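Morning. Coffee machine broken again, so started the prediction first thing and wrote up yesterday's gels while waiting. Chain of 415 residues, entered below exactly as on the submission form.
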Amino acid sequence: MALPYELLIGLRYTRAKRRNHFISFISLISMLGIALGVAALIVVLSVMNGFQTELRSRILAVVSHVQISGANGEMAGWERVAAQAGKQPHVTGAAPFVQAQGMLSYGQSVRGALVRGILPDLEDKVADFRPHMKSGSLDALTPDSFNIVLGAELARALGVFVGDKVTLIAPQGVVTPAGVVPRLKTFNVVGLFEVGMFEYDSGLALIRMEDAQRLYRMEDRVSGVRLKLDDLFAAPRVARELVTRIDADAFISDWTRSHANFFRAVQIEKNMMFIILSLIVAVAAFNIVSTLVMAVTDKQADIAILRTLGASPGSVMAIFMVQGALIGCIGLGLGVAGGVAVALNVDVLVPLIERLLGTQFLAKEVYYISELPSELQWSDVTTITLVAFVLALAATVYPSWRASRTNPAEALRYE
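Came back before lunch.
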């Protein structure tokens, strides 16, 4: 099947050696500009996806996917609530918890903390503390042992290590003739964890649930039940469904609500980076305009001959649109290939650059994420490719239209 002559001539113009080498140079710059812009866009969005996933995994190591809390801060019969929630197909684990404010004291150091009473075996089903234990073990949280596991930053602020004893001060006081006296209890430090989120590493303390119930005078009641799902992105829908399933006076929330502002800020930042870097692609794409304007000027005689032989203005326009689109597609192809290659090998390239420059971009002393994460999402690659192609194609319209308006008599007058 014969190809349209507009396509053949457009391809020939792109391949042919030009009398004006400056046009070829501008074409090359346009290709490289589009390639660099597209590659940068793919790499940056992949790195931001990696950061988003890394932060989400660290937050969900401590925060459950869905949390059912007692309406007044206390819940009776947590086993029944857990059983009702477990009937939802997406729920894979449930664990009760007691949560309250407290103050930890060691020597002259005092720090406020969020105290969470847990059952270690059930907690493993909804959180990932064990992989983040720096020392000690959650199994040491046995009933009536009054042992405690601290976040690494909290322990550092207090100056305590595994084996030391800290005093936990509960806000619920004891009424005595001398007035209200805070409840005090000495706990043994049996472990330290570090999940990489300062909020939790510096302010969370874990104790046995029965010890927390006794300290905060909750008898057999708990603060609520935490759930883990097989699909974390189904959490909002599951939370809505559980409202009709749970036969208790409770408040149900999911992880997207508890950290809504944080994840919204990350998404907004990603969108803004996409817009900013798309402008780089747009600038490179519109270099095609100057390339085609000079090409049209250089090919005035050819255009006139084609018009004399019967080519319509639309055919002339199509010839130069093919030439410009081909320049854009070559640059786009190079950019996608380079961007995908870099995004898939960020973990290798960044350490290599750090060694060559003798520096570290994400120092462990400053950042909790000391390695540059990357997660390539093909949906992003598809979007970038379509946007870049549309910009490149749009850049060909005006020069091609000008070519189609060429008057053959005027163009051949001085030939």
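The chain has a mean pLDDT of 82. Going to sketch it on the whiteboard this afternoon.
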